[in-house]
Amino acid sequence: MGTLTLALFLLLPIAFLAGWWVSARRVRRPTPVPLPRAYVQGLGHLLGERNDEAVKTFLDALRRYPESSELLLALGRMFRRRGELERALSVHQHLLDQQELDLVGKQEVLLEMARDYLKAGILNRAEAILVDLLRKDGDSLPARELLAEVYELGGDWEQAIRTRRALRERGQTGQNRIIALLYCELAEEGLRRKEAIETYLSEAERADAQCPRLVLLRGRIAHGQRDWEVAARHWSTLLQPDRFAVLAQILVPYLETLRNCEASLDCRAWRAQLLTLADSASLLLPRLVEAVRQVEGDAKVIALLQDKLRNGDDRVVLQLYLRAGGDAAAVVPQMQRAIAELPLADGLFHCQQCGYQTAEFYWRCPSCRHWDTFRSGGLAA
Prior knowledge:
One of its GO terms (molecular function) is metal ion binding. Residues 349-375 form the LapB rubredoxin metal binding domain. Keywords: Metal-binding. It comes from Igneacidithiobacillus copahuensis. This is Tetratricopeptide repeat protein. The protein is mainly α. The chain folds into 2 domains: 3-159, Tetratricopeptide repeat domain (Serine Threonine Protein Phosphatase 5, Tetratricopeptide repeat, Alpha Horseshoe), CATH 1.25.40.10; 175-296 and 346-380, Alpha Horseshoe (Serine Threonine Protein Phosphatase 5, Tetratricopeptide repeat), CATH 1.25.40. It contains 20 helices and 3 strands. Strands 2-1-3 form a 3-stranded antiparallel sheet, with no helix packed on it. β1 and β2 form a beta hairpin.
């Protein structure tokens, strides 16, 4: 039995029995109300992977027991999670056609249909449903939140910002952080087209002055203008453990910048801080070593790793030292205390919201679609 089917096995009885119990309570007589046989038949079809028969059975039950609509909604959600989007849409469309559903019930079904279309990538259908829902009920936060996702997936940043602002006005928390990131999307597009982007950056700063992507962009602009110390100052704000994932995106240009402003006391201090921070994130260290190799050469890499070996015998440092061509004879004591030839784990970015791991950095998790979740502890084994 699959995990989802097992979950449904546990969930559907609760949904169905709730409706059945309400129905039983309304009949004020001592005679017990029997559990509908349709439920048992439908569940049997599900467990036997006869999904179409299960849908038909549960729809028949709905006509006799309108309170069981929650069961059909749960069934549609299960199909959507399994990627069976046609079945999910079919279930929700059948539900929508039931005259027994009240206005609130129909709105809930329409919201599920919008989620089906969103999962299928049919964004225009999802948008049309949600816009119509909001026209009838402008205070529906789930519909507005889903509409923001539709615009974000379609890259319509202006509409997404407007929708997020409307959510903020209705008391939905966390919108400023996302709005700042959306303005940064517009700024990056403007950079690619060589357009002026200061307005976008100012709006991002107004929404969230601590936005790490804004810091990244301002540093890149200063770097492109060869304003080394200004770029370094912007990027130095990322020298903190909960921004390792962001910092890893700019290690090469950051080291280039620090080398070009090494006459500055601040720049030298930031370089030392960067090298020290890598000690507390072993998966940042391989990326830093590669950046040092690109910017400063192999000799600097070996000197860096020798210095770290003098302060301990960390296996990752030892592996990096040997792979960089360091003198093996000089580290025999450390080698004796380490397990040789261990594979060096790749640095994976880790979504704090859903646990998704990837070698690429995303501002918006491609799995759970939450913004700015590759952060504190963002590099994971």
